[in-house]
Amino acid sequence: MTEQRKALAMISGGLDSLLAAKLVQEQGVHVEGINFFTGFCVEGHTHAIRKRSSSKPKRNNALWVAEQLGIKLHIVDIIEEYKQVVFNPRYGYGANLNPCLDCKIFMVQKAHQWCQQHGFDFVITGEVVGQRPMSQRKDTMPLVSKRSGAEERLLRPLSARNLPETLPERMGWVSREQLLALSGRGRKPQIALARHYGFDDFAQPAGGCCFLTDAQYSSKLADLWQARGRKEYELDDIMLLKVGRHFRPKPHFKVIIAREEGEGNFLQGYRKQYLSIVSLSHPGPLALVDGEVGDKDIELAASLVARYGKGRDVPRVEMEIRTPSGSSFLLNVQPMAASSIPEQWYL
Amino acid sequence: MNRVLVDARRLLCPMPVIRVQNSVANLPAGTLVVAYCSDPGALNDIPAWCRINGHRVVEMHSTEGEYVVVLEVGAG
Lengths: 347, 76
Known about the structure:
The structure holds two protein chains of two kinds.
Chain A: E1 6-10, H1 15-25, E2 30-37, H2 45-49, H3 61-69, E3 73-77, H4 79-87, H5 100-118, E4 122-124, H6 141-148, E5 154-155, H7 167-170, H8 188-197, H9 215-228, H10 235-240, E6 245-250, E7 253-257, H11 261-268, E8 275-279, E9 287-291, H12 295-306, E10 317-322, E11 328-333
Helix pairs in contact in A: 1-3, 5-6
Chain B: E1 3-8, H1 15-24, E2 32-37, H2 42-53, E3 56-63, E4 66-72
Parallel strand pairs in B: 1-2
Antiparallel strand pairs in B: 2-4, 3-4
């Protein structure tokens, strides 16, 4: 009896990784999934934070994909290790602070190591030649195979026939003829294939699955690094960059103002770490102050926060200032006029 | 029956799932794991993770912004 081969599919939660895993699973290979959590994943967090998303079902798309395939999914926290990818990408950043090529190499390397530790034979990705400007090009895809160490044990089922033969194909673990030759950014073949397999309701994130590809998010991260004088972050830092309006009135402090109730609830959880400001006399958002601040700074921040409450048009608003230790005091401030907020404060 | 507590409060998904997964990895079948979460998404994600990995959710409830999922570790 032929030994059943085992493949580890990198599951992002999108359609391509679902189809790639399905193509290999159909050939009798035992497939399990792996999903990496970097802290920058769009998946999950924005649903959890923003109240306006609450009408949509809260689901983790990687788990959903695994359930559609009937496979196990291993979710791996790589937050700490991933920092070096973000800080020092060998192949540089994309349009924003997205180190896509280094990211892909790193993740394939992690997946390959997992295979070696767990007796799996090869790695599957949903990559398609020409689909992404950095990591999914005809010239960079072989680089991913090489630099990750996976070499011939990396199979891209959706584009396999556009690429050199890999070990699983050469050994007959999978039939190359039953793999695909997709290329380019078009989505029609994938959608047709999804329909063929009866997959619907699959995720198609318009802006990709990583916050680092987002210009505004990257700009806030760059500001954080500049303010601290070096590239560094903790999970809380990069979570807070996803939430609220961000202003930097002075180089040494930043103000984060909730945009709606869900964000306000989320920021509540940080009141023991940051100075917080909220209006007492009128309904208004919760805000956090990040940085070492003096009395004048606090007054400036309170005036800015008052601008975003219902009391924005009254002469004076009473604001509560709470320190991380829990002590609080009141400040009576004039809400800042919109025209008084310098453009460079907005992050 | 053994009960193992997992504190996943103040964590957003998928971190509660990862905490549960890492805890379950070292536990024998039949152990009960009680996960305390503050992200309501955990009420969907932990059961989904259980279904695909062969574990069984035996109870879920929520009180004052805290969500509790009790699961029984499967045979793997």
